[in-house]
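Q&A log
Question type: sequence-to-structure
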Amino acid sequence: MQGQMWSYILKRVLLMIPTLLGVLTLTFAVVQFVPGGPVEQLMLELKGKGDAAVSGAESSGGGSNYRGRQGVDAERLAEVKALYGFDKPPVERYFMMLKRFAQFDLGQSYYQHQSVWQLVVSKLPVSISIGLWTFFLTYLVSIPLGIAKAVRDGSRFDAITSTMILVGYAIPGFVLGVLLLVIFGGGSFLQIFPLRGLTSDNWSDLSLMGKVMDYLWHLVLPITASVLGSFAVITMLTKNSFLEEIRKQYVLTARAKGLTEKQVLWKHVFRNALLPLVTGFPAAFIGAFFTGSLLIETLFSLDGLGLLSYESVMRRDYPVVFGTLYLFTLIGLFTKLISDLCYVYIDPRIQFGAGGGS
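Response status: OK
Response body:
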């Protein structure tokens, strides 16, 4: 069994390579046809037209109408291309990128004068704060609630809670965030919670407990806006999973043997019903470290990975675009592998490999 597991892991790791290459190749090919790249933007700035000209050029649709390079002498254009590495043909740049990525060198940002690694690490505290708190609160509330709904299926409690979580699911996080700011952030009613950032301006002067309370106080509104929509999916998945197990024959047999409902639920149903949740647990947990919600971060003035990704795409900061794409795709592939391994660990009946033999 041990050898079969390592063989399975090796196969999955080898299969990650073409998947990763496919994602990077497709994105690289698309980028070659996108107008308004870093060369054009810098040339427009040198001509004094700035970002307004870039926006006008982009809105024109690019292509033959794009005028970012017109009016610039060939020598200066060649210097700018060499600065960004665009003096080389696309195929050569593509393989240079793959060589760097194989060494886990994500490159340097065109505009922020930092490496992509430094940018990702600098934005992680915000994304980790939002992602981890959202993750823990979602699972800590949704799993017990889903079990309670399954046990009380069809009751008034089940109907009321279903209505509440579905209403919460129907409200977009951004809309809820605006509503929370208007009511509790000093918009039109109460000014209870801070409007922006994760800490106050005087955070360094606070005591240890004051720093903790200040940090948590800043998180209340963005976490509430992020977490509400997540409750419905996990809660209903938990409920349906438990209901499916509760109605199986082995549960009737356990009850016939005189076991209490509590013993049946926790000793027999819980482990089997947990399988669908376990498959998504590693992805949700690891993803929490790299979660970036552009709308939530923008609304609450939080400088995280969501805002970094958006700005890098809009500014055509290709090293950041490709570096983060490579990093997050790699993390996603390994997370999927971990999920599958957890699935096998929870249910020994599932075996590695398509053949299913031990």
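Response note: The chain is about 70% helix and 0% strand.
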